[in-house]
Structure formats: structure tokens, C-alpha cells
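Continuing the series of single-chain predictions for the mutant panel. This is the parent chain; the variants come on the following pages.
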Amino acid sequence: MTSADGATTSIDTLSDIFAGAMQNTRHSGDIVIAATQIIAKRVGLGLAATFDPLQADHVEFAQIVPEKVKAFSAAGLAVLKQSGQANWQMMRLASDEVILAGRATMEMTVCSNPASLAEAQGRFAHAWFDRAAANFITMGRLALTVQVAAMAPIQQTVLANAERLGR
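Parent structure:
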């Protein structure tokens, strides 16, 4: 849902967050299943290599460490990139709050009586709670974005291994 001013409501945003979390959960499940299959296959290859080293799948064994290094390096770079973007957005939210607090302070200093001061404080508090809820949801989305970015190269590597070893 979108409000009259074009802002997305919390309900849609929460739905997006829950959908993203569910997608991450499904992807994690896919990784666990594929990794289990890969481990089982490689243990079998290792046992076979123990009994007949000359017939071992040397190509497969040679790929294990480099592919992990590549996947985890890509995941680390993705975390750095996404974390930097998330940090920038959180700093923007914090600086916006400082500016709004200054404006509220200025508005309250010119109040002519206790009733107008209480009214100004009430408006500020109400607006702050609305922003705090929205900012909390935004930070949840940022965390999910970082998680998705970090898991993508790992998931791609695991699924490629499962497909290759499923022969």
C-alpha cells in the first residue's frame, strides 16, 4: 500500500522483509542439502582414493580449496560493499534525526506558553515514534540485503558442485 504522499506503508515493508527472510531461509536450506550431498560424494571419493590413489579424482580434489577461497572471497567482498551502503544509509538516518531534533528544539524555544510547548513536544514525540518504526524496518531490510549478497557466491558454488558431482 502507498499513502497519499507516496510513502510505502509499514505493512508492505514488513511483508517484503518477511518474504526476503523466507527466501533466505529457503536458499539456506538448499545450500545445506547440496552441501550434504557434496560432502557425502567427496568422502566417497576420498575413501576410494585411499584404496587406489592412482585412480583418485585428482581434478576434483584440486578444486576443493580454490573454489572455497573464491566463493568466500566473493562473499566477503559482497559483505564489504553492502555493509558500506548500509552504513551510509544508517548514517543518513541518524543525521536526519539530528536535524529534526534541532528543528524541534527551535520550535519549542519559541513557544509562548506551557500548552503550546506541550503540543510541540507531543508532535515531535509522535513523529519520532513513526520515524523510529520506519527506521527499524529499514535497518532490517539492510541486514537482509547484506545476507543475500554474502550468500549468493556461496550458494552458486555449492549448487555448481552438487550438479558436477551428481554425475
